[in-house]
Amino acid sequence: MALTAEKVSELKQIIHNHLSQMNIQSTIRDALNESMREENLARHGDRIGEEDLLNMLKERGVVDDVLRQIRLDSNQTGYDMEGVVAHGIQTDRVTDAKHNAATIRRGPIDPTRRYLYFQVLSGRAFLEHLHEEESHPGQARSTFTLHINFRGQRFRSKPVPCACEPNIQEGFLLEIHKEGAGDAARMADLTSLISMSDPIHLVLIKTDPSGDTSLLSSHYIDWRSVLSADNSRLKTTLELLGIGAENKVPVGILEICLELMPKVTETLAGDVVTTQITLEKNRQSERERLFLVYAKQWWKEYLQIRDNHSQRLVKLFAQDENGTNRPVCSYIKPLKAGRLLDTPRQAARFVSLMGYERVPTLGGGEKNEQWTTSHAFLCRNKGDSEDHAVLLCSLLLGFGLDAYVCMGTKSKGAAHAWVVTIGTDGVITFWEPLTGNRYVHHTMDPDDDTQDKPDKPKHPYRTVGCIFNHVSFYANSQSSDAAEACNFTLNNESLWKAMSPDAINSVCGHGAIPSWPTLPPLCASPLDSGLISNQLEQDMRTMIIEHRKDLGLATTWDDQLSYYLTPALASYETERCTGVSAGNEEFQDAIRRAVPEGHTFKGYPIQFVHRNARRAFAACLRSPVCQEIVSCRGDHVRHALRVRIFLYPENACAAWIMFTCKYKSVT
Fold first, then answer.
1. Separation between Cα atoms, residue 529 and residue 613, nearest integer Å
2. To the nearest 10°, the Cα dihedral for 581, 583, 586, 591?
3. Are 644 and 607 in contact (CB under 8 A)?
4. What does the pLDDT average to over 317-338?
C-alpha cells in the first residue's frame, strides 16, 4: 500500500488525536511499570525492548481498541487501517521522536535503570499571545517549542500554535543514572537520588512564521520533590518567567507531572528533601560569597598596578538570561562534538553559522550586558558575540587546544568577544566566532624603534582586556592594551595578572555550583540536505519566473548548466571550513564548455544561514549584480540556478545559492 507524504502526515495526525483522547500515555506507563516487575523480567530476560512492550499492549487489547476507535475516521478519509498496520507505518512516539532534534534513545528499556517521566499536561495564562488565537484559518501562526536538558539528555517537543492556552501535551522519559565508576549499571536508590542536584533545564522558544526565533523563558526545575510524593508521582505548576530585563515578569504557566519509574518502595519525608535542598543552597551561597570576597581583593590589586586599568575591558562576572550573576569562567566547559564535527576549523564554521543578534534594549543607551547559557543559545540558534565565543572556546578545548575567550574591543571601539589559541610552538591565533575567520597574531613592541613597522593588522581587533577559560583568568597588565602589541606569555606576571586556579575551581569546578547549568551535548540535524536543497531551489525558481514576468520577460532554464554549478558551491563551503580553495579549475573548464562562443556568462554566488526563500530572494535583489542577472535581456537568454544547503549540528546550515545566466548580446 503506497501513500503520499501528505496522506501519511494526515493519517498520523488522526492517530495522534485519538491517542490523546484515549489517554494512551497512562496505559503505556502502567504497562511499563508492570514490565519491570520480577516475573516479567524473568520472562523477557534482562532487557525489555519496544517489541516486548508492544506485545504486552496487544495482550491487553490496547492496539485493537486504538484501531477500533479510529476506524470511523479512517473510512471517512479512505484509509485501510489494517493495510496500513500491515505495511509497517508507525505512529510517532509519545515524545514525538520525529520532531526531536536531540538524539532520543529508541533502544530497549533497561530495567536496571531508574527513569523520571516528565510530562507537560497543559499551558495557560500566556497573556501576551491572546491576540494570536484570532488569526484567520490557514494563516501561518507563530509556534511554541519546549526544549529539555537533563544530565546530558536533550529533548524537544513538537511545535504548537501560540495561544493564551497553548495545547502543549508532551512526555519525556529522562534516565537517572549514577556517574561513579562501577555504578553505571546499578539502579539509583533513594540515597543516590536525593544527592543528584542536577536540575531539569526547560527552555521555551517562539518561532514566527518567517522562521525567526526568540527566547521567551529559561527555567530550572528541581525534580527531587517527587521523592516525597505519594506513589512516586507529583503534579504541580510552573510559572515561567521572562528573560533579561523581564526576568521578573510571568510569561505563562505550565501544568506538569513528575513520576519515577519504577516507583520507589518507600518515600522520603518532605522535610528531608527540603533540608537537603536548603543545605545545598547554603553551601553554594557560601562558595559564591568567598569567591566574591576574593574577586574584590583581586580587582583592587589590579587597579593599583596602573591608573588606566579601570578603563580596560576586564570582565569578571556576567549576567545570564535569568539575571543571575556568574563568574565568566563558569560559562565555559570543554565540549566534545563526537561524530558531528571533525576538526577545529569545522567547529569554527559551525559556530559562525549560528545567528548573530545583539541583546535588545528598551530605550536608548548602550547595549544590555546579558550572556546566554549554552543550552538556551543552541535552542534559539542565535546570540551575541559572547555566546558565540563561549561555544567556540568550549569546542576548541574539546579538541585539545589551549583556547581562551578574549574580551576587548574592535577597530571602532565596540566591545567584542573572540577566541585566542596558544600553540605549543608559541603561535598565537585569533578566531573570529561570527565569521569563522582565523588570524595569526604577530606581536609588535611599541617601544622598539628598530623593529620594522608591520602593515596594518589583518584582524579587526583594537584592544585586549582579559582572556579566560574554564580553569584560568588573566587580565592584561601590559603598558598598552593594544591588540597588535599584546604579548601572550601568560606566565609572565609583569604582563598578565592571573586569578588563583583554586579560587576559580571552587565555583567553576565540576559540581561546585549544581544550580548552574552544565554544557549540553550537540545534536545532529534531522533534516535531509538533498530534500531541503531541492525545495529551496524550486521556490527560488518560482520567484525568478514571477519577477521576470512582472518585467514582461519570459524565463528559459538551462538545467545542464544548473548542475555544472554544484562543484562551485561545494568549493565555496570547503574554503570557508578549511581556508583552502579546491576544484575551481574543473568548474571553470565545465563552464567554458557550456557557454557557446559569442555568448556572455554571468554568475552571482551568495550564502545565507537560513532557508527562507522570500528573505533570501529579497536580499539577493539588493545586489546590482544579481539584479542584472535576474533581469537579463538579450538574445538566447538562458538562466541557471543551483542551491546547495550544507547541514551542521543544531539545525545550523550554510545555504549557498548561485544565480547565473548566459546570453548573446544584442548589438
1. 16
2. -60
3. no
4. 94
For 486-498, how does the pLDDT look when each residue is reduced to its tens digit (9 = 90+)? 999 999 999 999 9
Residue 618 buriedness (CB in 10 A; 0-12 / 13-18 / 19+): exposed
Whether cis (ω within 30° of 0) applies to the bond prior to 360 is no
pLDDT tens string 9-64: 566 666 666 666 556 666 776 766 666 664 555 555 555 666 777 777 777 777 77
Across 208-237, average pLDDT: 93
Instruction: Give yes or no for a contact between 223 and 234, defined as CB atoms under 8 angstroms apart.
Output: no
Nearest to 236 by CA among 249, 225, 251: 225
Give Rg (Cα) of the chain. 29
> Which pairs with CB-CB distance under 8 Å and at least 24 residues apart come from 494-500?
497/298, 497/301, 497/302, 497/305, 498/472, 498/473, 498/474, 499/295, 499/298, 499/472, 499/473, 499/474, 500/294, 500/298
Under 8 Å between Cβ of 175 and 113: yes
Q: Cell numbers of 607, please? A: 550564502
pLDDT, position 98: 36
The helix/strand/coil state of 382 is strand
Rounded to two decimals, the pTM is 0.82
**173 vs 94, higher pLDDT:** 173
Residue 48's identity, in one-letter code, is I
Q: Are 98 and 528 in contact (CB under 8 A)?
A: no
